[in-house]
Amino acid sequence: MRLLLHDSFGRPLLNLRIAVTQRCNYQCTYCHREGEDAVNCVSNCAEMSVEEIVRIAKVAVDLGVTRVKLTGGEPLMRKDICQIVAGISSIFGLKDLSLTTNGSMLLGIAKDLYAAGLNRINISLATLNAQTYSRLTLGNNLDEVLAGIEVAVKAGFSPVKLNMVILKGINEQDIPNMIAYTEKLGAILQLIELDPINVSKAYYNQHHCDLKNQEDKLRQEAIIIKQRQFMHNRSIYELSNTTVEVVHPIENTDFCMHCTRLRLTSNGKLKQCLMQNDKLTDILTPIRQGISNKELEQLFIQANQQREPYNKPSDKSIYNLNSRKN
Predict the structure, then answer these.
(1) Lowest CB count within 10 Å: 54, 100, 183, 296, which one?
(2) Peptide bond before residue 103 is cis, with ω within 30 degrees of 0
(3) What confidence tens digit (pLDDT) does each residue in 74-86 have?
(4) What is the rounded CA–CA span in Å between residue 262 and residue 82?
């Protein structure tokens, strides 16, 4: 019988985000790098192997995790990414396997990823303006990304989500065009507030854009409004021809109250929160020293017990402690 872990605040552990690399072919000005310290991985020997990643994912699923997301860095920098996908997708009990990418390398591999068992894909796309895109990504080409997105949609990923980080003074005006683009594609748009992680305080203060006004517009236009309970209670606005999700930054109690994630860093450490780099649980070193799966499970349980809301109210009773019974 599979376990279902809860932390001391009653939040279930349902999601594992695995950073398979910190290497990236982009240098986006707003990237939070999954909250990892600035690490320059220059060779595959600094990264977890396919077998190590799949083994860790299997232990997580045995402990009740149902969703795994592959991140980076840029996951497609790994030549063995399809092997990673195939290994994880074959794990019994896994319900969803997704990947987030900048899309620049997607054109030549999207069909292979789908065939290997990838269910969903998130593509970072802050603008449809080529000049703005080049500025944000420090010189990269928008056209190759758009071509990759079209191939991903045709390959059958369900859904394809476009992650649009909103930056004040840079791309707020592009939101209507992005909504129209997702309508045309049959994709989902995620409007994301800038997080104050791995960016300077000056950059954050200059470019952070509160999405309240945008949400007010979406609320008026939406046919149906939903909330994803186990995805930080984020709001989903179903418009007439597309769907828009709004992702607020992590530094609020509602976001933290509904967090069901544990993260695995690119160097094999379980990370309890995007905002914190303390209390990391090293599992790669014990794996390479011959640890058993039972012992590995105990490290997962230990890491989960250390999981707590980064922003938590004084009244602990607002957390869903009854979720222990589900």
Answers:
(1) 183
(2) no
(3) 999 999 999 999 9
(4) 23
Q: Cα-atom radius of gyration of the chain, to the nearest Å?
A: 19
Q: Which of 23, 18, 17 is nearest to 39 (CA)?
A: 23
- Span 6-60, pLDDT tens digits: 998 888 999 999 999 999 999 898 888 887 865 444 444 479 999 999 999 999 9
User: Residue 271, SS3?
Assistant: strand
The pTM of this model reads 0.91
Burial class for 27, CB neighbours closer than 10 Å (0-12, 13-18, 19+): exposed
- Torsion over CA of 54, 149, 219 and 32, rounded to 10 degrees? 50
Q: Closest by alpha carbon to 60, among 130, 124, 126, 4?
A: 4
Q: Shortest CA distance to 64 belongs to which of 119, 12, 137? A: 12
| Tokens of residue 111, six digits | 């069909």
Dihedrals phi, psi of 81, to nearest 5 degrees: -65, -35
- Residues 191 and 214 sit within 8 Å (Cβ to Cβ): yes
pLDDT above 70 coverage of the chain, percent: 88
Strands lying side by side in the sheet with 269-271: 224-228, 234-238, 243-247, 188-193, 160-166, 120-124, 96-101, 67-71, 15-19, 261-264, 269-271, 281-282
Confidence of residue 142 (pLDDT cuts 50, 70, 90): very high
Dist. CA 190–CA 164, nearest whole Å: 6
The Cα 188–Cα 202 span in angstroms is: 31
Residue with tokens 């009854």: 322
Name which of 245, 126, 249 is nearest 190 in CA terms: 245
Which two three-digit tokens encode residue 149?
Answer: 């997105």
